[in-house]
Write a structure and sequence with these properties.
The protein is of the alpha/beta class and about 450 residues long. Helices cover about 30% and strands about 15% of the residues.
């Protein structure tokens, strides 16, 4: 094993996960965070790994993508999952934690670990090409102004974003395709979009429900946000006028029904989210609507009456990089291979996804230190899916929670419906990960 310096900037979930994984495997780590001497505008506690929003880590079921991710992280000895399990509180089928106890437990482990040096300091820059040092940059979505300015210089401004705009994703098997048609506008290219035509009556009903639907409460630091014109919430476009949507994301021009030749008053377009076409996103439907309202309103769209939401739409403040342009699958930068970017700033969304990105980066460093470079997690695993999410080119990259669209579809038809198919994918993933780990005993703790 070579002797290399490892520094981690940011003591959130990704930073703590990475630090503890590397330290538990015998490597010395220096972890920097501005706490307890400094705080961002959203952090209140002096402890590391603070849960700023919900205290829920979502479902534990293997029929859910995040449940699979947790199971995979547990196989790798995840410190975040260990802390979550130890501080679990009753929450039905979900994994919820005592947020204070969770944060305190991880902080105590960091401060008392013999292989971790913790330094309370705000880092606003460093040399990404300095030899003999690995850096994991994991400042979270509310990076300090100084570090954000450094990121602008490091990535070039065009690859740094300050809010995300996420459209809902629907599972295809829940769509009534007898009410839809496949086509591209003006028949350009292939028939790549699934189109939901609306007559005037159905459109007006949808429009009224949309403008009257309940939205999430914005946090204080989000209220003064300025959005680009091309990325407005769908309900805000609707409020500009009764037919505003018909000149925006629901414009019907160039989309005649291929069988009848008829034009529609409005057309909702869905675009495939994965190569197999299992999942489709609602084009232009970034939204502030609450999740229950999204189910109610978007199921008014013809063909989506029974839609199953794989991911809900959202928009919120979130500093993140355009990862596919910048990152490899192990979260290292293409330009600076010894610099890793992890956590929500890397283009993942959610507590567990952030921790998982730190884990992936830490595994990469451990393998590289042992002469085993570029070992990416199996394609069938959710960790592998997360790696592909940040490293595969997309025209409009946006952060995402883990979803089953990130792993390949089953090779054969799975009987038993959606739940059975998802459990099959989870079992396949865990078997693939167990085989992978058996080939790399260095990863066992």
């Amino acid at each position: 094993m070579t002797v290399t310096q490892i520094q981690i900037i940011g003591g959130g979930l990704a930073g703590c996960e990475a630090a503890l994984f590397l330290a538990d495997h015998g490597l010395s780590v220096t972890l920097y965070d501005m706490k307890p001497d400094g705080h961002t505008e959203v952090h209140k506690q002096d402890t590391l790994a603070e849960l700023v929003c919900s205290n829920s880590f979502r479902s534990d079921s293997l029929a859910n993508a995040v449940g699979l991710l947790k199971a995979e992280m547990r196989l790798l000895g995840s410190a975040v999952m260990d802390a979550a399990d130890r501080t679990r509180i009753p929450a039905g089928s979900a994994l919820a934690v005592d947020r204070t106890g969770f944060s305190r437990l991880l902080t105590d482990r960091i401060l008392n670990h013999p292989n971790i040096e913790f330094i309370s300091e705000e880092i606003t820059g460093f040399d990404p090409e300095k030899p003999g040092i690995y850096t994991i940059l994991s400042p979270g979505p509310m990076a300090s102004r100084g570090l954000t300015a450094f990121l602008k210089r490091l990535t070039s401004r065009r690859y740094l974003n300050f809010y995300d705009a996420i459209a809902p994703i629907i599972s295809r098997d829940s769509i009534d395709e007898t009410k839809t048609f496949m086509a591209s506008r003006y028949d350009k290219g292939g028939a790549d979009y699934l189109n939901c035509p609306m007559d005037r009556e159905s459109y007006l009903s949808f429009y009224k429900a949309l403008i009257n639907a309940e939205t999430v409460n914005l946090r204080g630091f989000e209220k003064d946000r300025k959005l680009f014109e091309g990325c407005l919430p769908v309900e805000e476009i609707a409020r500009r006028g009764k037919d505003a949507l018909c000149f925006g994301p629901l414009k019907p021009v160039g989309l005649r029904h291929p069988e009848t030749g008829k034009a529609s008053h409005a057309v909702v377009q869905l675009r495939a989210e994965d190569n197999e076409g299992q999942y489709f996103n609602l084009v232009g439907f970034q939204t502030h609507l609450k999740q229950g309202e999204q189910r109610k309103v978007f199921r008014m769209i013809p063909g989506l009456e029974a839609a199953q939401f794989e991911r809900y739409g959202s928009m919120h403040r979130n500093t993140f990089i355009n990862s596919p342009e910048l990152l490899n699958g192990d979260f290292s930068m293409k330009k600076y291979p010894s610099l890793y970017v992890a956590g929500q700033i890397s283009g993942v969304e959610g507590y567990l996804e952030s921790a998982a990105s730190g884990l992936i980066a830490a595994v990469s460093i451990l393998l590289r230190e042992n002469g085993l470079e570029n070992q990416i997690f199996p394609e069938a695993s959710m960790l592998g899916g997360l790696s592909r999410h940040v490293s595969t080119f997309k025209a409009n990259f946006q952060p995402s929670n883990v979803i089953f669209a990130m792993v390949p579809a089953p090779e054969t038809r799975i009987r038993g419906g959606r739940k059975a198919r998802r459990e099959f994918l989870s079992n396949r993933a865990l078997q693939a990960l167990e085989r992978f780990l058996s080939n790399y005993p260095i990863l066992n703790y």
